[in-house]
């Protein structure tokens, strides 16, 4: 079976992490294709190389000297190379890069994080280096040209047999470097797995798989051993940053499972993500909880609204005009809400409200800001009536005010909106009441 192994920034943060990567790769001859991110944080409070390179861009943009910043990045790489005894002339290559930095595009500059990490890892593993600019092909609109990418990747496999591929970037056919969104090394790994028909896409990080809640919010959350692509998408979209939310698409279409594993504890079971989770007699009611802060909700109320054809469409077209994408639309008979990312409307909210007034002549419009959304996700929730009522009950008992609620149409998630200030407490209350222990009985028919 071919395995693609993607190692995130935390797994390649320093020489000690490189050593762990090598022993993981060498332990299994199926791990012939390795994707790496730029070196990440070595300890809490440290900087990711990608963040430092973004800072370099900001310095250049404002004509501020960035030489000491570049030196500190170079030092990180030099230290790794020295500690591992690598021959790659990292200092020379980095200085070449620094000397022409003013002439380089911002995306090119940021992509060098994975490029240098990839060069060092390739030598350390004794594998060829495949530049992502020669493998991952972008259309000019920023989407991936899967056909060309597949051809290039398959050619590289035939030519090189195995390789190290830096994540997070690629290039258009004319060679212009393009980046994925933040965390996009996960997408590179998924695309590679898809192009070579891998048996599994391994995603190595610093936690033992997907956890039922963000470990920075809930103390010692339990690990999720099996999760479906749909559940995973809901959780990662809502902030479970262990896997970039777009990363499931390339592998899902080809039915390739994703396995999340811990570089610091390779024997831990981790999480397997598939189309359907194999069912056991007893399963947790709720698979996981994730959430994000800083949303805004615009509530519109108008009597007899539901009898007016096109009312909602006219409202949504206002948001479209301002280029704002919509997260949720909770609706009632005579009212609806439009939930958007606070940062997307920070400059346009007054104009949007004004346009809504003009076009809809509503009875009232209310804007709620500092809204946090919490998504409670579980494939088994549809088997148990009344879950949402119980979620409100436990939040109410804890004195947490619920600002909105919405449920996904496949009944795999319930989303509650609370004030930003209540975010951590609300997640902990839901976790303690539901995730920590509660199981549901799976009907025998479902197991057959
Ligand atoms: N539900 C969750 N399960 C596991 N980790 C989570 C979850 N939500 C947030 N995280 C955070 O995601 C981190 C791993 O993602 P990331 O920092 O992108 O790793 P990497 O550098 O390996 O790509 C974990 O250290 C953890 O703090
Ligand atoms: N280095 C990029 C891409 C990436 O995937 O990183 P990580 O694997 O550390 O999340 C970023 O920080 O966004």
From TrEMBL:
Binding site residues for ATP: 6-9, 205-206, 216
Signal peptide region: none
EC number: 2.7.2.4
Pathway terms, separated by semicolons: Amino-acid biosynthesis; L-threonine biosynthesis; L-threonine from L-aspartate: step 1/5; Amino-acid biosynthesis; L-lysine biosynthesis via DAP pathway; (S)-tetrahydrodipicolinate from L-aspartate: step 1/4; Amino-acid biosynthesis; L-methionine biosynthesis via de novo pathway; L-homoserine from L-aspartate: step 1/3
Catalytic activity: L-aspartate + ATP = 4-phospho-L-aspartate + ADP
Sequence positions that bind substrate: 50, 114
Homology family: Belongs to the aspartokinase family.
Function: Catalyzes the phosphorylation of the beta-carboxyl group of aspartic acid with ATP to yield 4-phospho-L-aspartate, which is involved in the branched biosynthetic pathway leading to the biosynthesis of amino acids threonine, isoleucine and methionine.
Protein name stated in the entry: Aspartokinase
Annotated organism of origin: Olsenella porci
